[in-house]
Design brief:
Layout lengths: L1 H16 L10 E8 L6 H20 L2 H7 L4 H7 E6 L10 E8 L1 H10 L4 E2 L4 E11 L2 E3 L5 H5 L8 H6 E4 L5 H9 L20 E7 L4 E10 L2 E10 L5 H18 L2 E2 L5 E8 L5 H10 L4 E9 L3 E8 L3 H10 L2 E6 L2 E6 L1
Parallel strand pairs: 5-7, 5-8, 12-16
Antiparallel strand pairs: 1-3, 2-3, 4-11, 5-6, 8-9, 9-10, 12-14, 13-14, 15-16
């Protein structure tokens, strides 16, 4: 009885407040490297960190066209968007060449800023993408061996470093079955059945064919991103064999594809009613903590509660499938029956 009374008290609080404190992980930029010789005083160094953090954040979550709308934002406006900052190496009197700064931007202020600019951002945090890039060169189809793109896709370079931080690329292990499937269909790779290439067709995946030519390299992309089928043809002007440049170009295009499929329209919120199945006493507390960790969620309220389930109304931004994906990554089991969502904690 005491436990029930305690839970009811918590429910009353939730009715009134929702989750007014939501985590700002998406709008946090970590490890911004600043040369201590850039400015003679701390204020100048911190302002530079704010500028770099603002630039890095927008490159990470905005489409290319929208990024151009904000790249000339002045430092006074940027500072108004910052919640707080953290210096990792803070002894500026030592002979340190660089300091590292973490910058935390205010989510509500960023929403106001993007609304003013008529901009929609993309939430692609914790995104995994399984890919299989194959190379065609001199009429030879290279899948694993001698395939630069398969061997070096996750190789870090200064130019593509940020892209690799955003997307975690997963490459399938070498498989005789995959080799046989591709060789059998090498004349019509565009129509290849990807179910025979990727184990889980519901997870994000891309099959990439890079047809290298001396003048112009043709690229074909096919797969699924955020439950949406993707088919795209690209071309890359080729002056000489420079696979790294082609790889960087490809990653930028893939990143743009992923952003387009994960757009968040902050001007149009959505609402979701979901039933939490209660198996343990602390399930509601755990569920609340999980919701607080998701940036897409504006607030939530418990509308009904008993010892078997809790009904929760969630206000969020973006597409339902994106929210579903984020909840599942938090080890929640979701199901849809008769147009009603239910969830339980794994």
């Amino acid at each position: 009885m005491k436990i029930i009374k305690l839970l009811l008290l918590i429910i009353m609080i939730l009715f009134k407040t929702g989750n007014v404190l939501s985590t700002e992980s998406l709008f946090t930029v970590n490890n911004i490297k600043i040369d201590v010789n850039s400015y003679k005083n701390k204020d100048g160094l911190i302002n530079l960190a704010f500028k770099k953090g603002f630039e890095k954040l927008n490159k990470r979550i905005l489409l290319r066209g929208d990024y151009q709308k904000v790249e000339n934002t002045n430092i006074r406006r940027i500072k108004n968007l910052v919640s707080h900052y953290q210096i990792i190496k803070n002894d500026l009197n030592q002979n340190l060449q660089f300091i590292s700064v973490n910058v935390f931007f205010k989510r509500d202020k960023m929403y106001e800023f993007y609304n003013e600019k008529n901009i929609k951002y993309s939430d692609i945090s914790d995104k995994n993408l399984e890919i299989l890039p194959i190379l065609i060169k001199d009429n030879e189809t290279l899948i694993y061996e001698k395939n630069y793109f398969y061997k070096n896709w996750n190789k870090k370079s200064q130019e593509n470093k940020d892209d690799l931080e955003i997307i975690e690329y997963l490459l399938p292990i070498e498989s005789i079955e995959i080799i046989e499937e591709i060789e059998k269909n090498f004349r019509n790779l565009e129509t290849l059945n990807l179910k025979r290439i990727f184990d889980d067709e519901e997870k994000d995946h891309l099959f990439i064919v890079i047809n290298y030519k001396e003048i112009e390299t043709k690229i074909f992309i096919k797969g699924v991103i955020s439950s949406k089928k993707v088919v795209k043809n690209l071309s890359f002007k080729t002056e000489k064999i420079d696979y790294e440049k082609i790889s960087i170009f490809l990653k930028k295009e893939i990143l743009e594809l992923i952003k387009k499929q994960n757009i968040v329209d902050i001007g149009t919120p959505s609402f979701l009613n979901i039933n939490l199945k209660i198996a343990k006493q602390n399930d509601l507390f755990l569920f609340q903590n999980i919701l607080n960790q998701i940036d897409l969620i504006e607030n939530f309220h418990v509308t009904e509660f008993n010892n078997r389930f809790a009904s929760v109304k969630i206000k969020y931004y973006g597409k339902t499938n994106i929210l579903k994906e984020k909840l599942e990554k938090k080890k929640l089991i979701l199901s849809l029956n008769n147009n009603k969502w239910s969830v339980r904690i794994d």
